[in-house]
């Protein structure tokens, strides 16, 4: 059979079938369309302004490795004028992050970007290993997820950046849309497809890979010869999310546009006005100053439970009531440092590439 | 571990797992607290006697606030619909149960109504005691012509409907959507046959003279065979059936169209619609108001409601079993198994087994959603709200050509893409990942598209060309219709171009 020609440039031999469109295209055209779509996403939503200090949430996995590479490329090609940083979180799981943190350190060298690694231990006084030894394997994802979100914001404050970008891809977002519908989480459903989230007292956070297919990110890394580590957590079989992911993969196999179609659906609807009126207003945590839906933010609630030896109090209502019945938190309880938005100067020394 | 057990669960109690109780508290009905329960509905036990009021209560809650043309606010008044009633029946479980319940609740047989009259307050002449709808028509759309070797069930459905003396029966066929005769019957203006080229995402409109003599069944089959994925076929059929029913509602002066979707099937259609890009109109999957746009008709708004939307599959099955209802059943569409609709069905039914409350959560969550932006008219194919900027969004998110000229070159043929909603455009153009030789067949459009196109502000001439063509055709002149490529365009204007 004669080799197929790229349907885009109609010049070179097609060497791949694009997962998103099914078109058979050449390597250069693939790089071009992948990067240009990310650029379109960035410019369409006015994500950056010249001079912005932007931290890339880097885990050493495929999404963040490719994100760092693409952002650096686009920053130079289109003169975004961004100062890019790498920000990594070390959850403290023995043997899990070691390799991926090495990848991040190598990225720091290759892309010439300053890096900050912030550990749960440093921030909360607890590693995930220590948390799992107290709470067991069942609910530890709650701790890790809540702690990671805050850790990124706090790391960003330390770096004095204006903006955090994460490697969430189209598959992640489509899956989250489905999950939020099935869980009835109307508040998250309303905001999960936004490219950028920013409250009054949080750091701007965005997802430039919002429309990039997971398969294409892998393909990009493969053809650009970028190395990364698969970062499946040893503590994390999340059954319910697993169901949704399998379902999404089936839909994608049936019709590849399904991922983008779900995101389009998610962007087309919003929570109706009558329901919005009944939603809770945002507050700030009275203990650590971070955004919260209750008097205490989730991280402080979880940490108090850990410190008082009643870890389940952050998970179930019954355990929380039990802890409240034992009286208020002791004076000498270890807490998270008070959260303040960036003031202009980095609060920590940043590891500059040597 | 060494054990002396022989492994027979009958003799060895430790060998069996303890059975999980099927219900939370006791085996007595939660409502009357006297009878032993007969059915467990999401952990609550009900007896057979309390089951009927439970079901009718749920139907009333979902139907009665929408019967009167204008809501009465908090004041409860008598129910009076502004038109007749149309019940769409598919032969499946849900619609069979719906037919039975609506007949019992709102159309009592003569004997029963005589008994009732004796008990009525204010006599039969009192407006409160009038029938809610004067007339009820049951409509069945037979889809067997779409596929070879599929059984025609019209007569089975006719026999079923005959058992309810108060209902009239109107059978339709799926190919009516491509039949000018049917279109004239429901009040549509005569229109030429329109076709689109499904191989181009812009979906250029055209008219193929050779095909204009083809029968409605042939046009239906070429419509379905030109669709690019197994997902698209059931979605297209659903859309055609919905519009056939809505037009029939309008032609029978019906103010309400009731469908038998239960909680489980509603959740399936919600997730399936969202997975096919239908988020903008997700609310309409549960309930919609439709005003026909056929010129010359007095517009009667039709309310499409799904009264069983709070009743699960299991409750419907119990109702049918206890009342010995004859469920005719439906054939599965060939190839549909690999489609998004069937995958969603498997997923939701499996989820309902493991996490029973998820199905109602899906329906309740989607009920809280509203479209984010205003609509720009309606889609010419499905007649649901049209979101602005769909094509620009698609072009930005997935680059499909290297040319920077965003709008396609103006050709003699108008493109249908801008007048389609996201879902319909995706149904017609989105391909499967498997390499499949694309059929070059043109895709015939349903009969209503022509009048919608005129209304939607597409350049009049692009549509009228087709009409003009028909006229020219009668004079024996043959017109050729083709797309103009850039080099030909450049050739036509080359003397006005400066050297680069």
UniProtKB/TrEMBL annotation, chain A:
UniProt entry tagged with the keyword Cell membrane: no
Segments traversing the membrane: none
InterPro entries xrefs: CTU1-like_ATP-bd, CTU1_C, Ncs6/Tuc1/Ctu1, Rossmann-like_a/b/a_fold, TilS/TtcA_N, tRNA_thiolation_TtcA_Ctu1, UPF0021_CS
Any one GO cellular component localisation term in the record: cytosolic tRNA wobble base thiouridylase complex
Positions with a binding annotation for ATP: 57-59, 63, 89, 167, 172
Keywords: ATP-binding, Cytoplasm, Nucleotide-binding, RNA-binding, Transferase, tRNA processing, tRNA-binding
Domain of life: Eukaryota
EC number, as in UniProt: 2.7.7.-
GO molecular function: ATP binding; nucleotidyltransferase activity; tRNA binding
Pathway(s) it belongs to: tRNA modification; 5-methoxycarbonylmethyl-2-thiouridine-tRNA biosynthesis
GO biological-process terms attached to the record: protein urmylation; tRNA wobble position uridine thiolation
Presence of keyword ATP-binding: yes
Residues annotated as domain tRNA(Ile)-lysidine/2-thiocytidine synthase N-terminal: 54-232
PROSITE patterns the record matches: UPF0021
Major localization listed first in the record, in broad terms: cytoplasm
Domain named Cytoplasmic tRNA 2-thiolation protein 1 C-terminal: residues: 283-312
Record CDD domains: CTU1-like (cd01713)
Locations listed in the record: Cytoplasm
Family: Belongs to the TtcA family. CTU1/NCS6/ATPBD3 subfamily.
NCBIfam families recorded: TIGR00269 family protein
Function per UniProt: Plays a central role in 2-thiolation of mcm(5)S(2)U at tRNA wobble positions of tRNA(Lys), tRNA(Glu) and tRNA(Gln). Directly binds tRNAs and probably acts by catalyzing adenylation of tRNAs, an intermediate required for 2-thiolation. It is unclear whether it acts as a sulfurtransferase that transfers sulfur from thiocarboxylated URM1 onto the uridine of tRNAs at wobble position. Prior mcm(5) tRNA modification by the elongator complex is required for 2-thiolation. May also be involved in protein urmylation.
Protein name: Cytoplasmic tRNA 2-thiolation protein 1
Automatic annotation (TrEMBL), chain B:
Keyword annotations from UniProtKB, A to Z: Cytoplasm, tRNA processing
Lineage top rank: taxon: Eukaryota
Protein name: Cytoplasmic tRNA 2-thiolation protein 2
GO MF annotation terms: nucleotidyltransferase activity; sulfurtransferase activity; tRNA binding
Family statement: Belongs to the CTU2/NCS2 family.
Transmembrane spans: none
UniProt source species: Dendrothele bispora (strain CBS 962.96)
Principal subcellular localisation of the protein: cytoplasm
Cellular component GO terms held in the UniProt record: cytosol
Keyword Thylakoid belongs to the record: no
InterPro entries documented for this protein: CTU2, Rossmann-like_a/b/a_fold
Biological process, per Gene Ontology: protein urmylation; tRNA wobble position uridine thiolation
Subcellular location: Cytoplasm
Keyword Coiled coil: no
């Amino acid at each position: 059979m004669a080799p197929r020609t790229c349907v885009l440039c109609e010049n070179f031999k097609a060497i791949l079938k694009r997962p998103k469109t099914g078109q058979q295209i050449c390597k250069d055209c693939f790089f071009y369309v992948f990067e240009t779509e990310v650029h379109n996403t960035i410019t369409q939503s006015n994500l950056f302004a010249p001079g912005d200090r932007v931290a890339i949430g880097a885990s050493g996995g495929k999404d963040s490795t490719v994100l760092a590479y693409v952002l650096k490329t686009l920053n130079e090609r289109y003169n975004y004028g961004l100062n890019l940083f790498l920000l990594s979180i070390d959850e403290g799981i023995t043997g899990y992050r070691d390799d991926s943190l090495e990848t991040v350190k190598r990225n720091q060298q290759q892309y010439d970007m300053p890096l900050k690694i912030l550990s749960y231990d440093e921030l909360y006084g607890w590693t995930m290993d220590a948390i799992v030894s107290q709470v067991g394997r069942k609910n530890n994802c709650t701790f890790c997820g809540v702690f990671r979100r805050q850790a990124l914001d706090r790391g960003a404050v330390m770096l004095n950046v204006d903006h955090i970008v994460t490697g969430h891809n189209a598959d992640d977002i489509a899956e989250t849309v489905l999950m939020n519908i099935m869980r009835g989480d109307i508040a998250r459903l309303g905001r999960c497809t936004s490219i950028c989230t920013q409250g009054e007292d949080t750091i701007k956070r965005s997802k430039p890979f919002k429309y990039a297919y997971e398969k294409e990110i892998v393909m990009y890394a493969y053809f650009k010869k970028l190395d990364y580590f698969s970062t499946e957590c040893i503590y994390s079989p999340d059954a319910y999310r697993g169901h949704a992911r399998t379902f999404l993969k089936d839909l994608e196999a049936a019709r590849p546009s399904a991922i983008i179609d779900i995101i389009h659906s998610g962007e087309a609807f919003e929570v109706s006005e009558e329901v919005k009126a009944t939603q809770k207003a945002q507050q700030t945590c009275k203990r650590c100053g971070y955004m919260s839906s209750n008097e205490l933010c989730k991280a402080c609630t979880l940490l108090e439970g850990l410190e008082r030896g009643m870890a389940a109090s952050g998970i179930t209502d019954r355990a929380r009531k039990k802890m409240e019945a034992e009286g208020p938190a002791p004076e000498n309880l270890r807490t998270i440092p008070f959260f303040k938005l960036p003031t202009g100067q980095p609060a920590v020394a940043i590891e500059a590439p040597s | 571990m060494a054990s002396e057990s022989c492994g027979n669960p009958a003799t060895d109690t430790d060998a069996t797992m303890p059975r999980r109780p099927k219900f939370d508290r006791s085996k007595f009905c939660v409502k009357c607290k006297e009878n032993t329960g007969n059915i467990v509905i999401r952990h609550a036990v009900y007896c057979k006697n309390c089951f009927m009021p439970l079901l009718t209560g749920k139907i009333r809650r979902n139907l009665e606030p929408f019967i009167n043309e204008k809501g009465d606010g908090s004041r409860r008044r008598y129910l009076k619909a502004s038109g007749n009633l149309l019940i769409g029946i598919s032969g499946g479980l849900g619609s069979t149960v719906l037919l039975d319940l609506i007949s019992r609740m709102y159309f009592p047989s003569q004997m029963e109504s005589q008994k009732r009259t004796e008990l009525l307050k204010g006599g039969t002449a009192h407006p409160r005691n009038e029938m809610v709808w004067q007339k009820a028509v049951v409509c069945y759309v037979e889809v067997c012509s779409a596929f070879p070797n599929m059984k025609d069930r019209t007569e089975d459905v006719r026999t079923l409907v005959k058992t309810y003396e108060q209902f009239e029966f109107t059978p339709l066929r799926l190919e009516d959507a491509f039949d000018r005769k049917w279109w004239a019957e429901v009040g549509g203006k005569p229109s030429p046959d329109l076709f689109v080229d499904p191989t181009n995402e812009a979906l250029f409109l055209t008219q193929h003279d050779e095909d204009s003599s083809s029968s409605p069944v042939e046009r239906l089959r070429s419509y379905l065979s030109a669709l690019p994925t197994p997902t698209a076929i059931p979605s297209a059929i659903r859309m055609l059936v919905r519009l056939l029913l809505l037009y029939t509602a309008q032609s029978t002066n019906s103010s309400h169209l009731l469908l038998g979707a239960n909680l489980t099937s509603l959740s399936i259609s919600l997730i399936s619609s969202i997975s096919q890009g239908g988020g903008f109109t997700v609310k309409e999957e549960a309930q919609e108001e439709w005003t026909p746009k056929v010129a010359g008709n007095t517009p009667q708004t039709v309310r499409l409601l799904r009264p069983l939307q709070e009743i699960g599959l299991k409750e419907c099955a119990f109702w049918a079993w206890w009342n010995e209802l004859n469920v005719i059943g439906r054939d599965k569409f060939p190839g549909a198994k690999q489609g998004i609709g069937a995958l969603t069905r498997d997923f939701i039914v499996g989820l309902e087994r493991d996490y029973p409350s998820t199905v109602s959560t899906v329906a309740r969550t989607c009920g809280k959603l509203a479209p984010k932006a205003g609509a720009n008219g309606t889609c010419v194919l499905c007649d649901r709200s049209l979101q602005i900027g769909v094509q620009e969004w698609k072009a930005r998110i997935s680059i499909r050509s290297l040319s920077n000229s965003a709008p396609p070159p103006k050709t003699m043929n108008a493109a249908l893409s801008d007048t389609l909603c996201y879902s319909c455009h995706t149904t017609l153009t989105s391909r499967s990942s498997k390499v499949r030789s694309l059929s070059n067949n043109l895709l015939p459009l349903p009969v209503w598209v022509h009048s919608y196109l005129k209304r939607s502000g597409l350049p009049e001439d692009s549509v009228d060309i087709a009409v003009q063509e028909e006229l020219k055709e009668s004079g024996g002149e043959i017109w050729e219709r083709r797309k103009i490529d850039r080099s030909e365009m450049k050739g036509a204007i080359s003397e006005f171009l400066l050297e680069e």
